[in-house]
Design a protein that fits this description.
It is built from six helices and seven strands, in the order H-E-H-E-H-E-H-E-H-E-H-E-E. It has 169 residues and is α/β, with parallel strands linked by helices. The strands form two sheets. The chain has a four-stranded mixed beta sheet, with helices on one face.
Length: 169
C-alpha cells in the first residue's frame, strides 16, 4: 500500500499575495519634453503651447505615462499640467517623474483599493520573486495595508520565507 502524500502548504491557512498578478496591462511611456524647449533649456510658452496643440495625444490610449524633462532646465509646473490635461482622456495614468515613480504610483493605487477581507486573521506570504518591475515601495504599501488585519506576514515563497510581522499575544 502506497502512503498518500499530503500537501501541507495547500491545506494550510496560509494566504499568498503575488504583486506580479496585480500588475496592470498597458505600455509604460516616458514622455520627455526636452525637444519642446528652445535650445534644449528654455521653455517659451507660445512655442510650447504650439507643440501641445499639434501633438497627437490619442497615441497614448490606455498607456501609463511618466512626464519628465531630461535636460537641466527650469520647467514651470503649469507645463506638466498642460500636458497632463491633454493626456487625461487617453492615458490610464499620468505622473511627473520616471518609470519607477510611475510604477510606484500605479501600485499605490492598486494596493489602496485592495480588498483585504480574505486575509483577516490569516498568516500571509508576500511573494518576493517577480519578472515584472514591481517597485520596492509597493511591498511597503502592502505591509501597511495588511498589518492591521492579519495574523502574520512573511516574505518569500512557501518553502522559504522570512518572517516580518506577527501579532503579539
Amino acid at each position: 500500500m502506497v502512503e498518500e502524500i499530503i500537501n501541507r502548504v495547500a491545506n494550510s491557512p496560509l494566504k499568498t499575495i503575488d504583486l506580479e498578478e496585480m500588475y496592470p496591462a498597458g505600455q509604460r511611456i516616458v514622455f520627455d519634453i526636452k525637444d519642446w524647449l528652445f535650445e534644449g533649456i528654455i521653455l517659451r510658452e507660445k512655442e510650447f503651447r504650439g507643440h501641445v496643440i499639434e501633438h497627437d495625444w490619442s497615441q497614448y490610449q490606455n498607456q501609463f505615462v511618466a512626464l519628465t524633462c531630461s535636460e537641466d532646465a527650469i520647467i514651470p509646473s503649469w507645463a506638466f499640467l498642460l500636458i497632463a490635461s491633454e493626456l487625461a482622456p487617453y492615458a490610464k495614468k499620468v505622473v511627473v517623474g520616471n518609470l519607477e515613480t510611475l510604477e510606484t504610483s500605479i501600485f499605490q493605487d492598486l494596493i489602496s483599493n485592495l480588498n483585504i477581507d480574505e486575509f483577516s486573521n490569516s498568516p500571509v506570504i508576500i511573494k518576493g520573486c517577480a519578472d515584472k518591475p514591481i517597485p520596492p515601495s509597493a511591498f511597503t504599501f502592502l505591509i501597511q495595508k495588511l498589518q492591521p488585519v492579519v495574523k502574520s506576514i512573511m516574505y518569500g515563497e512557501a518553502c522559504s520565507t522570512v518572517p516580518l510581522y506577527k501579532v503579539k499575544k
